[in-house]
């Protein structure tokens, strides 16, 4: 029967989320099936908790959610853990981003993401049409929606607790240059960076990632690391893959990601790859058929 997990951790973008920024009803149904069997299913995403509700089907439920690449963890409405970027780091990075005309979204806890009004013009210019070919559809749609509906434009930063910083550039050279600036800044202030595409980079608290978030969630539920499986597709999933017992990459993942995992899905995120993988391995229907065949 292969590896039998007790806890399953699922990435969102490029994994359970297709390139139209939607989680399918079939994915919801297989998660419901696994949970009914007694397995624990968690989300482990780079997205903030506020970004999740609008992209999952009605009635979508998991046992817990790890957000912002390990910065926060929630079980329903309850906070399991939250880490926060310092106000000093936030102010320093915004100043540097402005010097380099870097698109940014700051995610305070408990309220809408923020960008300063004085940076709006170059921010809007960064997501002007047409979409660059190398930018993923879902990332582009998310930026368009953020500019139009989700960013609160402020004169100054008023909040004091932040889950993450997200940065985007339409040109790979620009984001790579910004990553270099962030590496230099790390010599002065300690923090962690993570990428989920060739056009973005995110900033979190030092030594925080999806793996540290999974560890904290497992401790909360008294679950063992040896019983964990994770499915993902990008660089910000690498620590997660290293931590869990059994790692699965999406068919749409880049080759370097596929080289470090135990298995690869047969289908992409746009073909309901997670649904097909979990159904073939762990669905109750398949188990019942297996039992019938062996009687």
From TrEMBL:
<dbReference type="InterPro" id="IPR023214">
    <property type="entry name" value="HAD_sf"/>
</dbReference>
<feature type="coiled-coil region">
    <location>
        <begin position="168"/>
        <end position="195"/>
    </location>
</feature>
<dbReference type="InterPro" id="IPR036412">
    <property type="entry name" value="HAD-like_sf"/>
</dbReference>
<keyword id="KW-0378">Hydrolase</keyword>
<keyword id="KW-0175">Coiled coil</keyword>
<dbReference type="GO" id="GO:0016787">
    <property type="term" value="F:hydrolase activity"/>
</dbReference>
<dbReference type="InterPro" id="IPR006379">
    <property type="entry name" value="HAD-SF_hydro_IIB"/>
</dbReference>
<dbReference type="InterPro" id="IPR000150">
    <property type="entry name" value="Cof"/>
</dbReference>
<dbReference type="Pfam" id="PF08282">
    <property type="entry name" value="Hydrolase_3"/>
</dbReference>
<protein>
    <submittedName>
        <fullName>HAD family hydrolase</fullName>
        <ecNumber>3.-.-.-</ecNumber>
        <ecNumber>3.1.3.-</ecNumber>
    </submittedName>
</protein>
